[in-house]
Protein backbone atom coordinates (compact mmCIF):
# COMPACT_ATOMS: atom_id res chain seq x y z
CA UNK A 1 0.00 0.00 0.00
CA UNK A 2 1.31 3.44 -0.98
CA UNK A 3 0.38 6.66 0.81
CA UNK A 4 0.19 9.72 -1.49
CA UNK A 5 0.17 13.29 -0.15
CA UNK A 6 -0.56 16.33 -2.29
CA UNK A 7 -1.72 19.94 -1.89
CA UNK A 8 -4.05 20.07 -4.91
CA UNK A 9 -6.48 17.43 -6.17
CA UNK A 10 -5.89 18.35 -9.83
CA UNK A 11 -2.44 16.74 -9.56
CA UNK A 12 -3.89 13.56 -8.14
CA UNK A 13 -6.52 13.13 -10.86
CA UNK A 14 -4.09 12.51 -13.71
CA UNK A 15 -1.85 10.36 -11.56
CA UNK A 16 -4.75 8.14 -10.44
CA UNK A 17 -5.94 7.59 -14.01
CA UNK A 18 -2.45 6.56 -15.13
CA UNK A 19 -1.84 4.43 -12.06
CA UNK A 20 -5.02 2.47 -12.77
CA UNK A 21 -3.87 1.92 -16.35
CA UNK A 22 -0.17 1.21 -15.84
CA UNK A 23 0.00 -0.24 -12.32
CA UNK A 24 -3.53 -1.57 -11.63
CA UNK A 25 -2.32 -4.14 -9.10
CA UNK A 26 -0.83 -1.53 -6.78
CA UNK A 27 -2.80 -0.32 -3.75
CA UNK A 28 -2.85 3.39 -3.00
CA UNK A 29 -4.39 5.87 -0.57
CA UNK A 30 -4.59 9.45 -1.85
CA UNK A 31 -4.82 12.50 0.42
CA UNK A 32 -5.07 16.20 -0.39
CA UNK A 33 -3.67 17.88 2.70
CA UNK A 34 -4.67 21.33 3.90
CA UNK A 35 -7.42 21.85 1.31
CA UNK A 36 -11.00 22.67 2.24
CA UNK A 37 -13.56 20.03 1.35
CA UNK A 38 -15.19 20.64 -2.02
CA UNK A 39 -17.79 18.89 -4.14
CA UNK A 40 -16.28 15.74 -5.61
CA UNK A 41 -16.92 15.26 -9.30
CA UNK A 42 -14.69 12.91 -11.31
CA UNK A 43 -14.21 9.23 -10.37
CA UNK A 44 -10.66 10.16 -9.36
CA UNK A 45 -12.04 12.76 -6.92
CA UNK A 46 -14.01 10.03 -5.18
CA UNK A 47 -10.76 8.26 -4.31
CA UNK A 48 -9.15 11.33 -2.74
CA UNK A 49 -9.56 12.15 0.94
CA UNK A 50 -9.24 15.78 1.94
CA UNK A 51 -7.69 16.36 5.34
CA UNK A 52 -6.05 19.06 7.45
CA UNK A 53 -2.36 19.19 8.32
CA UNK A 54 -3.25 18.28 11.91
CA UNK A 55 -5.39 15.34 10.75
CA UNK A 56 -2.63 14.01 8.51
CA UNK A 57 -0.12 14.35 11.32
CA UNK A 58 -2.31 12.09 13.48
CA UNK A 59 -2.38 9.44 10.76
CA UNK A 60 1.41 9.55 10.38
CA UNK A 61 1.79 9.02 14.13
CA UNK A 62 -0.75 6.21 14.29
CA UNK A 63 -0.23 2.44 14.28
CA UNK A 64 -2.17 2.36 10.99
CA UNK A 65 0.98 3.49 9.20
CA UNK A 66 2.21 -0.10 9.37
CA UNK A 67 0.06 -1.00 6.36
CA UNK A 68 1.98 1.37 4.08
CA UNK A 69 5.23 0.48 2.38
CA UNK A 70 6.15 4.03 1.30
CA UNK A 71 5.00 7.66 1.44
CA UNK A 72 4.98 9.68 -1.80
CA UNK A 73 4.92 13.48 -1.73
CA UNK A 74 3.48 14.99 -4.90
CA UNK A 75 5.67 18.11 -4.54
CA UNK A 76 7.20 19.01 -1.19
CA UNK A 77 6.06 22.50 -0.13
CA UNK A 78 7.45 24.00 3.06
CA UNK A 79 4.46 23.12 5.24
CA UNK A 80 4.73 19.44 4.25
CA UNK A 81 8.47 19.41 4.82
CA UNK A 82 8.17 21.07 8.23
CA UNK A 83 4.93 19.59 9.59
CA UNK A 84 4.59 16.14 7.99
CA UNK A 85 7.98 14.81 6.93
CA UNK A 86 9.38 14.52 10.50
CA UNK A 87 6.45 12.34 11.62
CA UNK A 88 6.81 9.59 9.04
CA UNK A 89 8.13 6.40 10.68
CA UNK A 90 11.92 6.30 10.40
CA UNK A 91 11.99 2.93 8.67
CA UNK A 92 9.47 3.89 5.96
CA UNK A 93 10.82 4.96 2.53
CA UNK A 94 9.87 8.45 1.34
CA UNK A 95 9.60 9.43 -2.34
CA UNK A 96 9.57 13.05 -3.52
CA UNK A 97 7.79 13.47 -6.87
CA UNK A 98 9.41 16.72 -7.91
CA UNK A 99 7.27 19.45 -9.47
CA UNK A 100 9.80 22.26 -9.32
CA UNK A 101 7.99 25.24 -7.87
CA UNK A 102 8.54 23.97 -4.32
CA UNK A 103 12.29 24.34 -4.88
CA UNK A 104 12.76 27.10 -7.46
CA UNK A 105 10.46 29.54 -5.65
CA UNK A 106 12.31 29.26 -2.34
CA UNK A 107 13.60 32.65 -1.19
CA UNK A 108 17.16 31.28 -1.05
CA UNK A 109 16.99 30.06 -4.65
CA UNK A 110 14.59 32.04 -6.83
CA UNK A 111 16.92 34.92 -7.77
CA UNK A 112 19.33 32.45 -9.42
CA UNK A 113 16.65 31.71 -12.02
CA UNK A 114 15.61 35.28 -12.81
CA UNK A 115 17.03 37.16 -15.77
CA UNK A 116 18.60 40.58 -15.32
CA UNK A 117 15.46 42.65 -16.01
CA UNK A 118 13.14 40.34 -14.06
CA UNK A 119 15.53 40.25 -11.09
CA UNK A 120 15.65 44.06 -11.08
CA UNK A 121 11.85 44.08 -10.70
CA UNK A 122 11.92 41.34 -8.05
CA UNK A 123 14.49 43.27 -5.97
CA UNK A 124 12.74 46.65 -6.30
CA UNK A 125 9.89 48.37 -4.50
CA UNK A 126 7.79 47.76 -7.62
CA UNK A 127 7.41 44.24 -6.24
CA UNK A 128 4.50 44.43 -3.77
CA UNK A 129 6.22 41.76 -1.68
CA UNK A 130 9.49 43.72 -1.44
CA UNK A 131 9.41 44.52 2.31
CA UNK A 132 7.84 41.20 3.22
CA UNK A 133 10.61 39.34 1.37
CA UNK A 134 13.33 41.41 3.08
CA UNK A 135 11.85 40.62 6.49
CA UNK A 136 11.45 36.93 5.69
CA UNK A 137 15.04 36.67 4.46
CA UNK A 138 16.26 38.05 7.79
CA UNK A 139 14.12 35.46 9.58
CA UNK A 140 15.53 32.73 7.32
CA UNK A 141 19.04 33.70 8.38
CA UNK A 142 18.15 33.83 12.06
CA UNK A 143 16.37 30.48 11.87
CA UNK A 144 19.18 28.92 9.77
CA UNK A 145 16.54 27.93 7.25
CA UNK A 146 18.96 26.66 4.61
CA UNK A 147 20.66 24.37 7.12
CA UNK A 148 17.27 23.07 8.22
CA UNK A 149 16.24 22.51 4.59
CA UNK A 150 19.33 20.38 4.01
CA UNK A 151 18.67 18.44 7.22
CA UNK A 152 15.02 17.84 6.26
CA UNK A 153 15.91 16.55 2.81
CA UNK A 154 18.13 13.87 4.37
CA UNK A 155 14.83 12.09 5.04
CA UNK A 156 14.06 11.70 1.30
CA UNK A 157 14.95 8.29 -0.12
CA UNK A 158 13.88 8.68 -3.76
CA UNK A 159 13.68 11.69 -6.08
CA UNK A 160 11.19 11.07 -8.92
CA UNK A 161 11.49 13.28 -11.99
CA UNK A 162 12.03 13.06 -15.74
CA UNK A 163 15.17 15.24 -15.76
CA UNK A 164 18.19 13.65 -14.03
CA UNK A 165 20.02 17.00 -14.09
CA UNK A 166 17.59 18.43 -11.54
CA UNK A 167 18.13 15.39 -9.31
CA UNK A 168 21.91 15.83 -9.49
CA UNK A 169 21.61 19.57 -8.85
CA UNK A 170 19.67 19.10 -5.60
CA UNK A 171 21.59 15.99 -4.57
CA UNK A 172 24.96 17.72 -4.93
CA UNK A 173 23.86 21.08 -3.54
CA UNK A 174 22.61 19.54 -0.31
CA UNK A 175 24.98 16.57 -0.12
CA UNK A 176 22.17 14.00 -0.36
CA UNK A 177 24.42 11.08 -1.23
CA UNK A 178 21.88 8.51 -0.07
CA UNK A 179 19.02 9.80 -2.26
CA UNK A 180 18.21 7.61 -5.28
CA UNK A 181 16.89 8.74 -8.64
CA UNK A 182 13.64 7.36 -10.04
CA UNK A 183 12.97 8.35 -13.69
CA UNK A 184 9.37 9.49 -13.80
CA UNK A 185 7.16 11.61 -16.07
CA UNK A 186 3.52 12.20 -15.15
CA UNK A 187 2.33 10.75 -18.42
CA UNK A 188 -0.26 13.07 -19.94
CA UNK A 189 -0.73 11.97 -23.53
CA UNK A 190 0.99 14.46 -25.83
CA UNK A 191 -1.65 15.97 -28.06
CA UNK A 192 -1.07 15.89 -31.83
CA UNK A 193 -2.76 18.78 -33.54
CA UNK A 194 -3.88 19.57 -37.06
CA UNK A 195 -1.99 22.84 -37.62
CA UNK A 196 -3.92 25.95 -38.64
CA UNK A 197 -1.99 27.06 -41.72
CA UNK A 198 -3.91 30.31 -42.11
CA UNK A 199 -2.23 31.94 -39.13
CA UNK A 200 1.28 32.47 -37.77
CA UNK A 201 1.29 33.00 -34.01
CA UNK A 202 4.15 32.97 -31.55
CA UNK A 203 3.75 31.38 -28.09
CA UNK A 204 5.54 33.42 -25.42
CA UNK A 205 5.96 31.55 -22.09
CA UNK A 206 3.29 29.43 -20.44
CA UNK A 207 2.06 31.22 -17.28
CA UNK A 208 2.30 34.43 -15.29
CA UNK A 209 4.95 33.17 -12.86
CA UNK A 210 7.84 35.58 -12.34
CA UNK A 211 10.31 32.77 -13.14
CA UNK A 212 9.04 32.77 -16.73
CA UNK A 213 11.27 35.88 -17.08
CA UNK A 214 8.78 37.78 -19.25
CA UNK A 215 10.71 41.06 -19.07
CA UNK A 216 13.95 39.49 -20.29
CA UNK A 217 12.14 37.49 -22.96
CA UNK A 218 10.45 40.62 -24.31
CA UNK A 219 13.77 42.45 -24.38
CA UNK A 220 15.41 39.60 -26.33
CA UNK A 221 12.61 39.38 -28.90
CA UNK A 222 13.57 41.54 -31.90
CA UNK A 223 11.22 43.70 -33.94
CA UNK A 224 12.22 41.73 -37.05
CA UNK A 225 11.08 38.49 -35.44
CA UNK A 226 7.86 40.05 -34.15
CA UNK A 227 7.03 41.26 -37.67
CA UNK A 228 6.90 37.68 -38.94
CA UNK A 229 3.95 36.68 -36.71
CA UNK A 230 0.28 37.61 -36.54
CA UNK A 231 -0.01 37.53 -32.75
CA UNK A 232 2.21 36.99 -29.71
CA UNK A 233 0.22 34.75 -27.35
CA UNK A 234 1.20 35.31 -23.70
CA UNK A 235 -0.52 32.90 -21.25
CA UNK A 236 -1.06 34.72 -17.95
CA UNK A 237 -3.89 32.76 -16.37
CA UNK A 238 -2.09 31.93 -13.10
CA UNK A 239 0.98 32.68 -11.04
CA UNK A 240 1.28 36.49 -11.17
CA UNK A 241 0.55 39.47 -8.95
CA UNK A 242 -1.23 42.43 -10.52
CA UNK A 243 1.80 44.72 -10.33
CA UNK A 244 3.99 42.27 -12.23
CA UNK A 245 1.25 41.61 -14.78
CA UNK A 246 0.81 45.34 -15.42
CA UNK A 247 4.56 45.76 -15.89
CA UNK A 248 4.73 42.87 -18.36
CA UNK A 249 1.64 44.09 -20.20
CA UNK A 250 3.18 47.56 -20.62
CA UNK A 251 6.52 46.16 -21.83
CA UNK A 252 4.74 43.83 -24.27
CA UNK A 253 2.51 46.61 -25.67
CA UNK A 254 5.51 48.90 -26.13
CA UNK A 255 7.43 46.21 -28.02
CA UNK A 256 4.70 44.25 -29.78
CA UNK A 257 1.82 46.69 -30.08
CA UNK A 258 -1.59 45.14 -30.74
CA UNK A 259 0.04 41.81 -31.60
CA UNK A 260 0.37 41.04 -27.87
CA UNK A 261 -2.53 38.81 -26.76
CA UNK A 262 -2.76 37.95 -23.07
CA UNK A 263 -4.64 34.81 -22.05
CA UNK A 264 -6.03 35.77 -18.65
CA UNK A 265 -8.67 33.06 -18.37
CA UNK A 266 -7.72 29.46 -17.64
CA UNK A 267 -8.65 27.42 -20.74
CA UNK A 268 -9.59 23.78 -20.72
CA UNK A 269 -7.20 21.41 -22.43
CA UNK A 270 -8.96 21.26 -25.80
CA UNK A 271 -9.51 25.02 -26.01
CA UNK A 272 -5.85 25.63 -25.25
CA UNK A 273 -4.79 23.19 -27.95
CA UNK A 274 -7.05 25.00 -30.41
CA UNK A 275 -5.15 28.21 -29.62
CA UNK A 276 -1.80 26.45 -29.99
CA UNK A 277 -2.77 25.04 -33.41
CA UNK A 278 -1.95 28.49 -34.80
CA UNK A 279 1.49 28.66 -33.17
CA UNK A 280 4.56 28.44 -35.41
CA UNK A 281 7.23 29.27 -32.81
CA UNK A 282 7.60 28.88 -29.03
CA UNK A 283 9.66 31.60 -27.32
CA UNK A 284 10.37 30.37 -23.78
CA UNK A 285 12.51 32.67 -21.58
CA UNK A 286 12.45 30.55 -18.40
CA UNK A 287 15.74 29.29 -16.96
CA UNK A 288 14.21 26.79 -14.55
CA UNK A 289 12.32 23.66 -15.50
CA UNK A 290 8.68 24.74 -15.97
CA UNK A 291 6.02 24.52 -18.65
CA UNK A 292 7.23 21.09 -19.70
CA UNK A 293 3.85 20.06 -21.11
CA UNK A 294 3.91 23.03 -23.49
CA UNK A 295 7.37 22.05 -24.74
CA UNK A 296 6.39 18.42 -25.29
CA UNK A 297 3.38 19.63 -27.27
CA UNK A 298 5.66 21.77 -29.44
CA UNK A 299 8.07 18.89 -30.04
CA UNK A 300 5.19 16.58 -30.97
CA UNK A 301 3.78 19.11 -33.42
CA UNK A 302 7.07 20.22 -35.03
CA UNK A 303 6.97 23.72 -33.53
CA UNK A 304 10.49 25.15 -33.11
CA UNK A 305 11.38 25.98 -29.48
CA UNK A 306 13.70 28.84 -28.54
CA UNK A 307 15.24 28.84 -25.03
CA UNK A 308 18.04 30.65 -23.19
CA UNK A 309 21.25 28.62 -23.32
CA UNK A 310 21.45 28.71 -19.51
CA UNK A 311 17.99 27.17 -19.25
CA UNK A 312 17.76 23.75 -17.63
CA UNK A 313 15.40 22.72 -20.42
CA UNK A 314 17.89 23.77 -23.09
CA UNK A 315 20.64 21.73 -21.47
CA UNK A 316 18.36 18.72 -21.01
CA UNK A 317 16.95 18.64 -24.53
CA UNK A 318 20.24 19.31 -26.31
CA UNK A 319 21.93 16.75 -24.06
CA UNK A 320 19.36 14.14 -25.07
CA UNK A 321 19.84 14.96 -28.76
CA UNK A 322 16.62 16.93 -29.39
CA UNK A 323 16.76 19.87 -31.75
CA UNK A 324 15.86 23.05 -29.87
CA UNK A 325 17.22 26.53 -30.50
CA UNK A 326 19.25 29.11 -28.60
CA UNK A 327 17.69 32.50 -27.84
CA UNK A 328 21.08 34.13 -28.37
CA UNK A 329 21.26 32.83 -31.95
CA UNK A 330 17.66 33.54 -32.95
CA UNK A 331 16.80 37.01 -31.74
CA UNK A 332 16.55 38.26 -35.32
CA UNK A 333 15.62 35.22 -37.37
CA UNK A 334 13.06 32.46 -37.00
CA UNK A 335 14.55 28.98 -36.61
CA UNK A 336 13.52 26.21 -38.98
CA UNK A 337 13.16 22.51 -38.17
CA UNK A 338 14.34 20.40 -41.08
CA UNK A 339 12.72 17.07 -41.90
CA UNK A 340 15.56 15.00 -40.41
CA UNK A 341 15.43 17.08 -37.21
CA UNK A 342 11.67 16.56 -36.97
CA UNK A 343 12.12 12.82 -37.39
CA UNK A 344 14.83 12.71 -34.75
CA UNK A 345 12.75 14.74 -32.30
CA UNK A 346 9.86 12.28 -32.73
CA UNK A 347 12.11 9.28 -32.09
CA UNK A 348 13.54 10.82 -28.94
CA UNK A 349 10.10 11.93 -27.79
CA UNK A 350 8.89 8.34 -28.00
CA UNK A 351 11.97 6.96 -26.25
CA UNK A 352 11.81 9.44 -23.36
CA UNK A 353 8.08 10.16 -23.03
CA UNK A 354 6.29 7.40 -24.95
CA UNK A 355 3.49 5.42 -23.32
CA UNK A 356 5.64 2.30 -22.90
CA UNK A 357 8.27 4.32 -21.06
CA UNK A 358 5.67 6.01 -18.86
CA UNK A 359 4.02 2.68 -18.04
CA UNK A 360 7.29 1.18 -16.85
CA UNK A 361 8.00 4.24 -14.71
CA UNK A 362 4.62 3.98 -12.98
CA UNK A 363 5.17 0.30 -12.26
CA UNK A 364 8.54 1.01 -10.71
CA UNK A 365 7.21 3.92 -8.69
CA UNK A 366 4.15 2.34 -7.06
CA UNK A 367 4.24 -1.34 -8.01
CA UNK A 368 5.54 -4.16 -5.87
TrEMBL record:
<keyword id="KW-0328">Glycosyltransferase</keyword>
<dbReference type="InterPro" id="IPR009993">
    <property type="entry name" value="WecF"/>
</dbReference>
<dbReference type="GO" id="GO:0009246">
    <property type="term" value="P:enterobacterial common antigen biosynthetic process"/>
</dbReference>
<dbReference type="Pfam" id="PF07429">
    <property type="entry name" value="Glyco_transf_56"/>
</dbReference>
<dbReference type="GO" id="GO:0102031">
    <property type="term" value="F:4-acetamido-4,6-dideoxy-D-galactose transferase activity"/>
</dbReference>
<dbReference type="GO" id="GO:0008417">
    <property type="term" value="F:fucosyltransferase activity"/>
</dbReference>
<keyword id="KW-0472">Membrane</keyword>
<keyword id="KW-1003">Cell membrane</keyword>
<protein>
    <submittedName>
        <fullName>TDP-N-acetylfucosamine:lipid II N-acetylfucosaminyltransferase</fullName>
        <ecNumber>2.4.1.325</ecNumber>
    </submittedName>
</protein>
<keyword id="KW-0997">Cell inner membrane</keyword>
<keyword id="KW-0808">Transferase</keyword>
Amino acid sequence: MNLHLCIDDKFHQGFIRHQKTYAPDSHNDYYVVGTARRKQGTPEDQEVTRISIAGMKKILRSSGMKRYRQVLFHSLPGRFRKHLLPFIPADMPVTWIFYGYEYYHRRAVIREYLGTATRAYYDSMQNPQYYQLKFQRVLDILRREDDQYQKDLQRIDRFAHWNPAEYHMIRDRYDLTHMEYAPFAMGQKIHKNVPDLRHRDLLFGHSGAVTVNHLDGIKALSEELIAGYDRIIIPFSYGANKRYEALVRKAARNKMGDKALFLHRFLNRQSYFNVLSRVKLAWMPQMRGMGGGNLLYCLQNHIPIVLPEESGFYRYYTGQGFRVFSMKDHQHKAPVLHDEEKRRNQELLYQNFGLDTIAEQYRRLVGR
